[in-house]
Amino acid sequence: MLIHQLTKRGSNHPDYCEDYTVISAKDDLMLFGVFDGCSSGTESHFASALTGKIIKAEFQKLNAKNQPENLIKDLLFNTVLKLKQQKIDLLLNEDELLSTVLLFLYHKVENKGVINIIGDGVININGILNITDQNNTPHYLTYYLDDINNKQEFTVWYNKEVGVFPVNELKDLTISTDGIRSYYSVNKQEKDKEKINPIDYLIKDDWLMNNKAMLKRKCNILYKKQGLKNADDLGMIRIIA
């Protein structure tokens, strides 16, 4: 299995990259996650990192014997409870926890898993592209923390707000924040010149796939040879079986 991971600051964010990525393993399970902090929030790099670190920690506590579709629900429920407590303990406001959540829970032996998305993002499952676009107003997890106090309330929210994508076989899969959709031409005079499609180039093209620096090198090529740059921060993980 080849795993490529990237976080890249966008030109619209001069100080911090507000995206965060997580990779973690436990027994026969692997967890992959990308998180996108809201630019209009307060210290959004903190929101995405805190959410990612909590999910990573809660993943390590799971009973790995259950099926991925049940485990990922348990993971999110436990994360909600932990975030509620952190909000109290750290005296956080809602705008300090604005982050999207995009997770892939994978069973290595069975070669299958499930993806959950809260907010927006880009998913590629074996060549099939799925884009979740909420018109720049993502339904952030933090909006619902006060409404979820037990498993029943969580289930109602999960069935309504969480995007679920089963993965029956892993061949080539990518989860990404929507920063991958923000590429623009740096040289306006060349905007009509035929360009590489950044999404296809980063998540479908298999050139350099055995190189650990594949995504970083491809981003450099997009900028130096194509004059293409990401405006929004980019966080992505690509897994190739």
CATH architecture: 4-Layer Sandwich
Number of domains: 1
What portion of residues is helical? 25-40%
The arrangement of helices and strands along the chain is EEEHHEEEEHEEEHHEE
Care to count the β-strands? 12
Task: Kindly summarize this structure in a few lines.
By secondary structure, the protein is α+β, with helices and mostly antiparallel strands.
SSE topology:
Elements: E1 2-8, E2 19-26, E3 29-36, H1 44-59, H2 68-89, E4 101-107, E5 112-118, E6 121-125, E7 128-132, H3 151-161, E8 163-167, E9 172-176, E10 183-185, H4 198-203, H5 214-224, E11 228-230, E12 234-240
Antiparallel strand pairs: 1-12, 2-3, 3-4, 4-5, 5-8, 6-7, 6-9, 9-12, 10-11
Helix pairs in contact: 1-2
Written account of the structure:
By secondary structure, the protein is an alpha+beta fold. The protein has one domain: PPM-type phosphatase domain (Phosphatase 2c, domain 1, 4-Layer Sandwich), CATH 3.60.40.10. Helices cover 27% and strands 29% of the residues. It is built from five helices and twelve strands. The strands form three sheets. It has a five-stranded antiparallel β-sheet with strand order 1-12-9-6-7, covered by helices on one side. It has a five-stranded antiparallel β-sheet with strand order 2-3-4-5-8, covered by helices on one side. Helix 1 packs across helix 2. The radius of gyration is 18 Å and the shape is globular. The mean pLDDT is 93.
Main traits of this protein?
5-stranded antiparallel sheet; alpha+beta; 241 residues; Phosphatase 2c, domain 1
